[in-house]
Please model this.
Amino acid sequence: MAVSIRLRREGTTNSPYYKIVVADSRSPRDGKFIEIIGNYDPKKADHNSNLDLGRVDYWVSRGAQPSETVASIIRRTRRAAQAAV
Model:
């Protein structure tokens, strides 16, 4: 089973927000998923995502592949976490 970390669209027309989920790569975008590990709201300014980096590391160690967008969100979250320390 190929596992990916990707965005799942929610919200209404013209005001989307996304859940960051771990899902089988064969399932549809808004279909079944294994675990929700964060969220992302593109309409918010500045800090617009919330992500559990421990779970990201766990799933990546198990072979999950993040999408390009999720990979950039992970990088931004890691930078913000390091700056806060």
